[in-house]
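Researcher: Structure for this, please.
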Amino acid sequence: TPVGAFPDEPKVEIVASVLAERACKIHDDQDFQARVARVIDPQYGDRTENHEPEDQIFDRLVSREDEALSDRFHALPWEKRRNILDLIQDPRLQIFGRRLTYAEAPDELSETEREECFQWQVDRILRDGDAPWLTADGALERLAEMMKSSNPVLRTRLQRYTEYVASIRNVAVQFPHGARQKKVG
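Model: Predicted structure, token format:
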């Protein structure tokens, strides 16, 4: 954050150029960032290598090169964004870029990339009870519980939500799109 951004921060007696130089060193030192993250986040040690990119947001900073490429990605029309994704080194940004492209301009992705994005979407909707987010089945269960103790007006509104969530779930399970392969092993 910029110096002076917070009203209660202590006065810094270091020249701005020295602060900028130190900030650059920290920004470019991935190992240092990982060590600091482990100290700051007590749950860091419990993470596995196979976690979602959303869980990796604060694991490390984005390189200056990828920041610049990300800015270019967002400034270009959809038909030119796909090429930028191949230049980005950070796998988190690549995944988010593909997902964004899938949502806004799926035809700009290869068939394989579209299928991967679709399977990710289906997994978000249908994941079994171990998901850290609210799945369609979980939402339907909560809505059913809420409907039991609600007044008629609210119950009607909740019924519309139930129908909407059920329709999303039904699309996700229909063949061939939602045909999920069970993981073996």
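Researcher: Any notable elements?
Model: The helical segments are 16-28, 30-40, 64-75, 78-87, 91-104, 111-126, 136-148, 152-173. Residues 172 and 178 are 5 Å apart (CA to CA).
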